[in-house]
Amino acid sequence: MKRYSSSVKAFFFVIGIFFISCQSDDNPVSYEKASNQYTNIWMLEQMKKYYYWNEELPFFTNLSLSPKDYFEKLLNTDDRFSYAVNPSDPETAPKSIRNTYGFDISFIEYNGQAFGVVLFVLTDSPAERSGLKRGQFIKSINGTTVSHQNFENLYSELASSGNAQLQLVEYAATAGFSAIKNVEIIRSFTFSQPVKYNVLLSDNEKVGYMEIPHFDVGLAATFLKVFKEFQKESVTKIIVDLRYNGGGDVSSAAALSIILAPNIKPDDLFIKFKGNKNGGLVNKTFKEALEMNESQVNFETLRTAHPTIQEVYILSGNHTASASEIIINNLKPYMNVIVIGDKTTGKDAAGFAIEDDRIADKRGWVLYPVIYKLFNARNEGNYTSGINPNIELNELQEMEIFPLGDIREILLNKALKGTGRQKSVHTVKKLLLNKTYIATDPFLKIY
Questions:
Q1: What is the C-alpha to C-alpha distance for residues 353 and 4, in angstroms, rounded to an integer?
Q2: Quick check: 243 pLDDT over 60?
Q3: Strands, DSSP E only, in 298-440?
Q4: With b meaning 16 or more CB within 10 Å and e meaning fewer, what string describes 171-187?
């Protein structure tokens, strides 16, 4: 994610608007550099210029608050995604289990007992290196047994911890529960994730399946390679698994959309960015959206990999967010998008990083405010509460949980068999967290 300094920030709105100064010229007040007041005034100025809800900012706030607390006081009640980070203080960074350990969990009830269940594990993450796998069940976290009363607190504490002690069991329908295994995971970094794909055979039809963990910058070449292989295998159906994709780069999302959508032209409208009065409306065609952050693979080259399809199946869940939701919403004007799974996160917002660089040789706070709301070519958006699937299906309705990409896995199996009625099993009950824990993802890049 490229960071924009405050000294040149006005150039990065595509429409090049001159912004109105947010501080009065009458008797300006000076504060000591690096003080809370010095930082907070800067934050307020940036929010008045860029923030989507800038006309609803509070008029009076306590400038002596810590910058993190002050920034949170500025946020609109509908804003779940804006945040501020001080690079010199790791404690100010948003925390999630995915960011900390490279996996995530949900909670279920089975035969009156509560368990954590491992939903996914990132490649070469601390979790994978410790032996975690999708479908394992967690009996205790840091010595505390999972229960109906404490599962939400355990989740929150796990996201903030530096290491985790887990008691794990596995389950198979034929063998029941395995013996308990104790695992320790130490917090560390997880890097870019591979796109996993395969050609599956279902009722004599070749199906191209791909799982995309994140829309990293520069994925166009990877998508081109994958779909060229799908072409060689003569696939006639595409399934894209985005249930654990929290978003990423808009150009990579545009690249996938260019390959998937039938009968599109370079100048067809792909996305609309709607900002405040300063930001205005920014329309991007497929070609323009691709070129925002992709220079190695062009529109015409991507179109050579288009499969012979008129519809696409998307597997979704409550971790599906941002650029992944753009794939769902912004392809709808051009093709039939069949979404299977749970409702998505509802991150219909975009923006960029704004960095305070006023003090030489010192990195200041970095703001990630909501700047734009997102819409498709038919002006459809406003999915803050999430995008509902065409076929609502709980991937945790059975106790035995298969790996992603396994044809026995509930959502994939449904997509392979078509849109007919699904037989519900529901041997387990999903326990819902009261708070939505979102693995914060850098906003989409806009130039």
A1: 6
A2: yes
A3: 311-316, 336-341, 349-350, 353-355, 366-368, 372-375, 391-392, 429-431
A4: beeeeeeeeeeeeebee
Q: Taking every pair of C-alpha atoms in the chain, what is the biggest distance, in angstroms?
A: 78
For residue 56, give the 3-state DSSP assignment: helix
Ramachandran category for residue 334: left, alpha or beta (phi over 0 → left; psi -120 to 50 → alpha) = alpha
pLDDT-derived band at 28 (thresholds 50, 70, 90) equals low
β 372-375/366-368 pair status: unpaired
CA 154 to chain centre: 23
Domain boundaries, the chain: 196-353+360-421
The whole-angstrom separation of Cα 300 and Cα 170 is: 48
Q: Please, are residues 336 and 310 in contact by the beta-carbon 8 Å criterion?
A: yes
Distances (CA, A) of 389 to 57, 301, 426: 34, 31, 19
pLDDT grade for 18, boundaries at 50, 70 and 90: very low
pLDDT digits (tens, 9 = 90+) for 378-402: 999 999 999 999 999 999 999 999 9
Q: What is the mean pLDDT of residues 273-284?
A: 96
Element (H, E) at 186: strand 181-186
* Higher per-residue confidence, 405 vs 3: 405
Query: What residue ranges in 393-446 does DSSP mark as E strands?
Result: 429-431
- pLDDT bin (cut points 50, 70, 90) of residue 45 is very high
Alpha helices in 77-205 (DSSP H): 97-101, 126-129, 151-160
Determine the Cα–Cα distance for residues 37 and 185; give it in Å rounded to an integer.
Answer: 40
Strands 113-121 and 281-285: unpaired
Which residue matches tokens 């779940």?
A: 80
Q: Which residue has the tokens 């709607």?
A: 274
Residue 162 burial (CB count, 10 A): 8
- The SS3 assignment for 327 reads helix
When the candidates are 3.10.20.600, 3.40.50.720, 3.90.226.10, 1.20.1560.10, the CATH number that belongs to 196-353+360-421 is 3.90.226.10
